[in-house]
Amino acid sequence: MLILLVEDDQPLAASIAGALGAQGWRVDISPLGEPVPASLMRDDYDALILDIGLPGIDGLETLRRVRAQGSRLPVLMLTARDTVEQRVHGLEVGADDYLVKPFAPVELVARLRALTRRHENRVAEVLSVARLRFDPKALRAWVGDEPVKLSRRECDILQYLMLKAGRVVQREQLVTLVPGWSGATSDNALDLLVSRLRTKIEPAGVRLRTVRGLGYLLDAGDDA
Ligand code: CA
After folding, report:
1. Which of 51, 97, 130, 136 has its CA 20 to 30 A from that of 222?
2. Sign of the four-CA dihedral 199, 148, 125, 158
3. pLDDT per position in the chain (224 positions), as tens?
4. How far does the centroid of ligand 1 lie from the alpha carbon of residue 8, in Å?
5. Residues whose CB is under 5 A from ligand 1 (ion)?
6. How far apart are CA 17 and CA 2, in angstroms?
7. Whole-model pTM?
């Protein structure tokens, strides 16, 4: 697992990173919340650990921005005080779990495991839009009852679009899904991939629209 830890208390950050490292997990540390939304677009993290008390924008505002850009990443918040207001506010802006300082590293590890497992189960449900169905676990898709052949990349892109059906997905977000893709060369490759995908899935009554200057939008077509 690759984890992003946002904590401005350096000794604490180092001790958390040590505990997670002992599990074989990789950890990136950021002392600030500001760069987090961009980091999540760039790197393929499995979970985010977010301290509430940070210099600059605090953990709650950081999380609000992360969720606003459409990220469903599991988020564990760290708080210095166990106040009801903080807890409620955190859950409202999209935290998945809470840990009150001071805590034992083993508890942090256990909570993270539970959180990522829950997340995987959620993602593993079969997705459907109109007569299009996709099973993220088996990487299989159907138009009605007919199986559709998709490449691994097409599966990754389709899953993301289906999770966000009805909302515009930015091109940059899709590009980050494909390992090795970056910059202008990936633009053409993405257009090509989307147009192939469109041909395969639109018989299911869905529409995969290009939103000029923004990205793509998958929804149930008018006749669905
Ligand atoms: Ca702090």
Report:
1. 136
2. negative
3. 899 999 999 999 999 999 999 999 999 999 999 999 989 877 778 899 999 999 999 999 999 998 887 778 899 999 887 677 777 777 778 899 989 899 998 899 999 999 988 877 776 678 888 899 999 888 999 999 999 999 999 999 999 999 888 888 888 888 877 777 766 667 788 999 999 999 999 999 999 999 988 899 999 876 54
4. 5
5. 8, 51, 53
6. 11
7. 0.59
- Omega within 30 of 0 (cis) for the link into 11: no
CA 82 – ligand 1 centroid, Å: 14
Q: How far is the CA of 45 from the centre of ligand 1 (A)?
A: 21
Please name each of the domains of the chain with its CATH number.
Answer: 2-122 (3.40.50.2300), 125-220 (1.10.10.10)
- Cα–ligand 1 centroid distance for 34 (angstroms): 14
**What is the C-alpha to C-alpha distance for residues 97 and 111, in angstroms, rounded to an integer?**
8
**162 CA from centroid of ligand 1 (Å):** 36
| Ligand 1 centroid from CA 120, angstroms | 29
